């Protein structure tokens, strides 16, 4: 390349300098790819030299005259001498050429300057040769491995992970979602392997020069974005599924795990059928492959026609995986297959609207699993989990809007978070509930038909849904979805609705403000939301009516319009707003209404309040007490009723809130009072569920199984009743089995808790026994459970030894599992100070360990931030972050959220700790 530039300089040409001034983070808009022909040869036989090389031919349509071609390429060696460019059809001479090339490493641009100007309206074919190492970095085109225990050797495979912007690591391309094109993929590899890609195989033939190698060509794809292209070379087995509508459906895994594919293979086709009915659009491809990849950091990825999964999310073993893990598999398969329409068929124009993909897939996956497995009763649980998560994240000032501007490609990864997924899902559910079934379905169908194989923005969806709503009569004609939904998607946060009743006039005044956990920040002028108001009273108890009776509106300048509700009951009856949490907002009442609610909750009538609203009251009152809008005495009176509660959702709500308090209180002298309070609260439910005895092996209702697991975890942590002795005795009987890898007497529903409790109270021999089980386990969910449980030790040197194993690149813990293990260690009392020190001392080597996936560093901060609550520790952490800018770059959002979380803990300790302790003492 250098000599080309020297010749140019000698000739006095200045093309190179001209084009290098282009420094915008988005591609120029003069060109548009129509079709890619990608040929890739992968060599997996030599572990000392994993590599791939290939050619790409791109047919490019010219929209505006230009002298250069700018596309993406990262870490690829491109042979500049073999680039060809020619015009296809049209007037003029077909041959063109490249005068020089250059790179912009900040934006991964590869710029080719052309001899002749490219003319608008013409189509050109660009051909490039490239090569690269097949790395193990879990993005782009990379290698993964598994152990073949029979042959006692390591087997290697290759696979892709391109979202959001890693196709450029695999072949030169226009790597933005708006540049859809068709792809003809051809893979070259040793004949002992199988090649998979988005489309079915067209033909396989011998390689022209390498013995025992073949070329497999796949059919040309439908138009799609680069991030959805996928291919893999592997020696996996597969399970076929039969589908009534003719789509070929296969589930792939390493041969020694193929028996764990049964559930996913049976479920997948049912999921496809459900969506074909929901969206009123047939699945557009002739086949679907889903594949379980041993090393995979993304959980799962919706590549069109070749969906990739981490083993832990796709594989299910009835002997080793819990019911909760089975629900996880169902949920993730339903999520990824929902994307085949929402994301793949219609794709967001730019990553700003990533939430349209992720929020929608999250929401409809819940509907789908509920439809296929109604006996599990998981929809309410999913909804509640999503809301609990976003009420936390979105009450931080450092949160972000659902639809967020992306100004740098590196920011894209940060958008794959709870706001895009869970808040996105929650606002879509709100919209579904106020639109009604008919308008929701009709609007979706017309949107998918209108933008099939194209790109769209959120406004396009709002338009389709508004038309459907007005036609169905389910929304006033002077309302439109854009106005309502923009208030939820374009501004950060959510409102708290303050309800002040006038008991004599039987009215209530409503006001709204943004809810923030940080009490140092003024809430005035913090936005306005269009809020659908559903409510019911003590006499009416109509919680099933989730349609809005009224709306809180905003002016065009974003001010809240004052609202008065008429015809409410008298002073002896409560009212509850937001039936079944139909929209993501919190509600605070006046003292009399809280008093009436507490009376009902702490009576035999507590079940007259809907279970979701019981969970809501717990969550809301504990938040308001945290920020000082409610007294802790009132909050604790609300949650004291839990001694009667036997349902999952209120307990989940309580446990999530109490865990934030636990993290702080267990490091303080008044912990003993809190511990007594927790024991008093959970002893009745623990005994009601027969402790951790395996009495419910036949129960299919997941809410009961989840509740038992949750209660067991808290009961053993707080040494309630016989919890610890039962757990340790299960573990002892397992240890005494002659063949513990084949026979495990620990009940599946409480396995994680039994392991953790036994390691916490056990010996080093117990730890080593469990580590050996990890090494020998063949089921990913069991391996995950063991890894997390090994973090429960109270022995400092054992935790230190474990921390060092996590970040050992040649060790036995896979990179994808290192984050959850670090989080597990950091969340324990013995592990927290060690994990914090380990991160601070080794931030440089840890950031190199995860490179180039800098977003992984973000996940190490969160568990630490939740347990820091003194000014001294907060300032120490702030200094650490300031000193580690290079190692923590591209994760600004996580840094800001972690620091804010610490500050909120500091505020609570300084303002509420004494008051909270006094309130607890009164109840004991």
TrEMBL record:
EC number: 3.4.11.-
Catalytic activity reported: Release of an N-terminal amino acid, Xaa-|-Yaa- from a peptide, amide or arylamide. Xaa is preferably Ala, but may be most amino acids including Pro (slow action). When a terminal hydrophobic residue is followed by a prolyl residue, the two may be released as an intact Xaa-Pro dipeptide
Active site: 336
Enzymatic class: hydrolase
GO cellular component assignments: cytoplasm; extracellular space; plasma membrane; side of membrane
UniProt subcellular location: Cell membrane; Membrane
Residues that bind Zn(2+): 335, 339, 358
Signal peptide: 1-16
InterPro entries (UniProt xref): Aminopeptidase_N-like_N, Aminopeptidase_N-like_N_sf, ERAP1-like_C_dom, M1_APN-typ, Peptidase_M1, Peptidase_M1_aminopeptidases, Peptidase_M1_dom, Peptidase_M4/M1_CTD_sf
Residues at the site labelled Transition state stabilizer: 421
Gene Ontology molecular functions: alanyl aminopeptidase activity; metalloaminopeptidase activity; peptide binding; zinc ion binding
Keyword Cytoplasm in record: no
Aminopeptidase N-like N-terminal domain sequence ranges: 33-228
Co-factor binding details: Binds 1 zinc ion per subunit.
Record-annotated ERAP1-like C-terminal domain positions: 574-902
Family: Belongs to the peptidase M1 family.
Name this protein carries in UniProt: Aminopeptidase
Organism encoding this protein: Drosophila yakuba
Gene expressing this chain: Dyak\GE10463
């Amino acid at each position: 390349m250098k000599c080309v530039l020297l010749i140019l300089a000698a000739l006095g040409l200045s093309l190179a300098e001209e084009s290098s001034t282009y420094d915008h983070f988005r591609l120029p808009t003069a060109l548009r790819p129509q079709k890619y022909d990608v040929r890739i040869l992968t060599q997996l036989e030599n572990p000392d030299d994993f590599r791939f090389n290939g050619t790409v031919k791109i047919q490019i349509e010219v929209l505006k005259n230009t002298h250069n071609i700018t596309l993406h390429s990262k870490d690829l060696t491109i042979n500049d001498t073999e680039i060809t460019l020619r015009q296809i059809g049209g007037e003029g001479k077909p041959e063109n050429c490249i005068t020089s090339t250059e790179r912009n490493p900040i934006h991964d641009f590869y710029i080719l300057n052309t001899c002749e100007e490219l003319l608008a309206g013409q189509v050109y074919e660009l051909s490039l040769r490239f090569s690269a190492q097949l790395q193990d970095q879990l993005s782009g085109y990379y290698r993964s491995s598994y152990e073949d225990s029979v042959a006692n050797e390591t087997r290697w495979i290759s696979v892709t992970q391109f979202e959001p912007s890693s196709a450029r690591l695999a072949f030169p391309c226009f790597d933005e979602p708006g540049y859809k094109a068709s792809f003809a993929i051809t893979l070259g590899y040793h004949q002992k392997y199988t090649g998979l890609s988005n489309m079915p195989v067209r033909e396989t033939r011998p390689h022209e020069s390498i013995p025992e190698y073949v070329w497999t060509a796949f059919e040309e794809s439908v138009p799609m974005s680069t991030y959805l292209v996928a291919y893999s070379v592997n020696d996996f087995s597969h399970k076929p599924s039969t589908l009534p509508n003719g789509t070929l459906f296969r589930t792939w895994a390493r041969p020694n795990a193929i028996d764990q594919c049964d559930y996913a293979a049976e479920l997948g086709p049912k999921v496809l059928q459900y969506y074909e009915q929901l969206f009123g659009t047939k699945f557009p491809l002739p086949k679907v492959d889903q594949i379980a990849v041993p090393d995979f950091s993304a959980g799962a990825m919706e590549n069109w026609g070749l969906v990739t999964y981490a083993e832990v999310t796709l594989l299910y073993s009835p002997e080793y995986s819990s019911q909760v893990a089975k629900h996880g598999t169902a949920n993730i398969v339903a999520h990824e297959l929902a994307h085949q329409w929402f994301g793949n068929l219609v794709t967001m124009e730019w990553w700003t609207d990533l939430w349209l993909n992720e929020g929608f897939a999250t929401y409809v996956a819940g509907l789908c699993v509920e439809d296929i497995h109604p006996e599990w009763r998981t929809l309410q649980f999913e909804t509640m989990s999503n809301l609990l998560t976003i009420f936390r994240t979105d009450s931080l000032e450092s949160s972000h809007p659902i639809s967020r501007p992306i100004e740098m490609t590196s920011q894209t990864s940060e958008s794959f978070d709870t706001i895009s997924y869970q808040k996105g899902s929650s606002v879509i559910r709100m919209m579904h509930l106020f639109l009604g079934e008919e308008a929701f379905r009709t609007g979706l169908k017309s949107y998918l038909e209108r933008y099939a194989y194209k790109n769209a923005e959120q406004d396009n969806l709002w338009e389709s849904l508004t038309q459907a709503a007005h036609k169905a009569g389910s929304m006033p004609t002077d309302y439109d979805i854009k106005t309502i939904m923009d208030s939820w998607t374009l501004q950060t946060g959510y409102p708290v609705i303050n309800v002040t009743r006038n008991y004599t006039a039987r009215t209530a005044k409503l006001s709204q403000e943004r809810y923030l956990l940080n009490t140092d920040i003024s809430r005035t002028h913090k936005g306005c939301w269009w809020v659908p108001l559903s409510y019911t009273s003590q006499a009416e108890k109509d919680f099933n009516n989730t349609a809005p009776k009224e709306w809180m509106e905003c002016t065009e300048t974003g001010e809240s319009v004052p609202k008065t509700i008429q015809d409410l009951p008298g002073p002896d009856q409560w009212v509850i707003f937001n039936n079944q949490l139909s929209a993501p907002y919190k509600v605070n009442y006046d003292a009399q209404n809280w008093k009436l609610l507490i009376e009902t909750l702490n009576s035999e009538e507590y079940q007259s309040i809907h279970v979701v609203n019981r969970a809501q009251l717990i969550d809301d009152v504990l938040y308001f007490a945290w920020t000082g809008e409610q007294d802790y005495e009132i909050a604790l009176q609300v949650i004291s009723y839990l001694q009667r509660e036997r349902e999952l959702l209120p307990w989940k709500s309580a446990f999530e809130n109490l865990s934030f308090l636990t993290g702080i209180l267990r490091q303080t002298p008044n912990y003993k009072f809190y511990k007594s309070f927790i024991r008093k609260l959970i002893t009745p439910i623990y005994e009601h569920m027969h402790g951790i005895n395996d009495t419910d092996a036949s129960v299919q209702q997941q809410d009961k199984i989840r509740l038992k697991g949750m209660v067991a975890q808290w009961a053993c942590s707080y040494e309630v009743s016989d919890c610890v002795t039962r757990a340790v005795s299960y573990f002892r009987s397992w240890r005494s089995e002659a063949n513990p890898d084949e026979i495990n007497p620990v009940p599946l529903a409480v396995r994680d808790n039994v392991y953790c409790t036994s390691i916490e109270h056990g010996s080093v021999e117990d730890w080593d026994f469990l580590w050996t089980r990890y090494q020998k386990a063949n089921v990913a969910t069991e391996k995950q459970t063991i890894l997390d449980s090994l973090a429960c030790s109270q022995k400092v040197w054992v935790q230190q030894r474990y921390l060092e194993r996590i970040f050992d690149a040649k060790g036995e813990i896979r990179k994808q599992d290192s984050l959850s293990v670090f989080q597990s260690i950091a969340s324990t009392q013995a592990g927290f100070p060690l994990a914090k020190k380990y991160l601070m001392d080794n931030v440089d080597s840890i950031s190199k360990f995860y490179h180039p996936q800098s977003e992984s560093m973000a996940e190490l901060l969160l568990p630490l931030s939740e347990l820091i609550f003194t000014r001294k520790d907060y300032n120490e952490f702030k200094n650490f972050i300031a000193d580690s800018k290079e190692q923590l770059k591209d994760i600004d959002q996580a840094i800001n959220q972690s620091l804010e979380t610490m500050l909120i803990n500091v505020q609570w300790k300084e303002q509420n700790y004494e008051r909270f302790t006094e309130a607890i003492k009164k109840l004991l």
